[in-house]
Design goal:
By secondary structure, the protein is an all-alpha fold. It contains six helices and no strands. It has one domain.
């Protein structure tokens, strides 16, 4: 299950374009759709990414796997999985708030996004300032 860079870029642009078209139609009140329907392209894209990530992580369990640089790789994949779940939690909370299913404050809706952004900053800082000691 290997996608070339061009395929990944095309897939990303396709789902982003679909989401933006649906969002504009909803905001212009041309489509009386549920907010959960508007976010379907985002969730399909996230599902594809999650399946690819889980397949790569499960590939470490097969016999004959070479575990060179394995601990760093599995930590990075675990962070990617947590990041995807935080993004999913944010999208679900945002849709629930916009649809009126919940009366939580907007600040609580953004907690998963803030955690994702802080984690991304920590990851960026670690990748920039990490000094490898051999």
């Amino acid at each position: 299950m290997r996608m070339s860079l061009a395929q990944r870029v095309l897939l990303t642009w396709l789902f982003t374009l679909l989401f933006l078209i649906m969002l504009v139609l909803k905001l212009d009140e041309k489509a009386p759709w549920n907010w959960f329907l508007i976010f379907i392209p985002v969730w399909i894209f996230d599902t594809i990414l999650l399946v690819m990530l889980i397949v790569k992580m499960a590939g470490r369990c097969k016999s004959g796997f070479d575990p060179r640089n394995g601990s760093q790789n599995i930590k990075k994949k675990a962070w990617y999985l947590i990041a995807m779940l935080l993004k999913l939690a944010f999208c679900l909370a945002l849709c629930a708030k916009l649809q009126g299913f919940t009366m939580m404050k907007l600040a609580y809706v953004f907690i998963p996004l803030w955690a994702l952004l802080i984690g991304g900053m920590v990851e960026l800082g670690y990748n920039i300032f990490y000094v490898r000691r051999d």
